[in-house]
Amino acid sequence: MRTLAVGERALLVELDSGEETEAFHAELLRRRAAGALPAVTEIVPAARTVLLDGVEEPGRLAALVSGWEVEPLHARVEPAVEIPVRYDGPDLPDVAALWGVTPEEVARIHSAAGFRVAFCGFAPGFGYLTGLPAAYEVPRRATPRTAVPVGSVAMAGPYTGVYPRASPGGWQLIGTTDAVLWDPAREPAALLSPGTRVRFVPQGVECR
User: Fold this and answer.
1) For residue 192, with 0-12 CB atoms within 10 Å meaning exposed, 13-18 middle and 19 or more buried, which class applies?
2) Is it the case that residue 74 has pLDDT exceeding 80?
3) Residues 6+ apart with CB under 8 A from 181
4) CA 50 → CA 1, 11, 60, 128, distances in Å?
5) For FRET with 86, which of 52, 107, 133, 161 sits at 20 to 30 Å CA-CA?
6) Exposed, middle or buried: residue 128 (CB in 10 Å: 0-12, 13-18, 19+)?
7) CA proximity to 21, closest of 122, 118, 161
8) How confident is the model over 109-131, as pLDDT tens digits?
9) What is the pTM of this model?
10) Are the beta carbons of 5 and 59 closer than 8 angstroms?
C-alpha cells in the first residue's frame, strides 16, 4: 500500500492488485458505516487506487490506513444483486472458441461466478465487475462497434459489464438483460455501486 496526498484535502491510496483494492474499499465502507473512519466527503475506487476526498488531515489518515489489517473479500458474505441475462450475444461463439468450450458452457461458467463491482466509470451506471478466474479473460474486439445496444452484457480483460445505454464499445457481447442499470428517477439512480456483489441469472441460451 502506498499513499499520496492530493492537494490539501485528499488522499490517494495505491494498492498492488485489483483484489487488494476491492478489499480495501470494502474496509473503508465498513469502517465509515461503523463511525470508525475520520470524516471523508467521497470515496472513489478505481482499478488499483482509492481516492479519499474531503479529508481534514491527509497525513493523519495515511498513517491510520497504513496500519490496517484488511481481511480478504471472500471472508465477507453480503446479499447480491441478481441480474437476469439471456446468453444470446453476437460474440458468444467467439468467447466460447477462446475458452475452448461450447456457448452453453460459457453461459454456465459465467452465471456460476460470483461478481463484485470493482469500480464504476465509462458511463453513468456502468460497473466494472470482477469475479471470473484469470483463465477466462478475453481481449477487446479488434474493431469496436459504433453502437452497442442498451442492456448488453459484455466482457473485456478481467471485467464483465452491462451497458446502461446504447453507446460505442469494443467489449465482447455475450448476452442481454432487461435490468435498468441507470434511472435518474430512482434512488439511488445506479443499480450497481462499487463493492456491490452481483450474480447473473440465466434466462435461456441462444447460440448464434
Assistant:
1) buried
2) no
3) 125, 126, 127, 151, 162, 163, 164, 190, 191, 192
4) 11, 8, 16, 15
5) 133
6) buried
7) 118
8) 999 999 999 999 889 999 999 99
9) 0.77
10) yes
Residue whose grid cell is 441475462: 85
State residue 132 phi and psi, 5-degree precision. Answer: -80, 145
Q: What is the 3-state secondary structure (H, E, C) of the chain?
A: CEEEEECCCEEEEECCCHHHHHHHHHHHHHHHHCCCCCCCCEEEECCCEEEEECCCCHHHHHHHHHCCCCCCHHHCCCCEEEEEEEECCCCHHHHHHHHCCCHHHHHHHHHHCCEEEEEECCCCCCEEEECCCHHHCECCCCCCEEEECCCEEEEEECEEEECCCCEEECCEEEEECCCCCECCCCCCCECCCCCCEEEEEEEEECCC
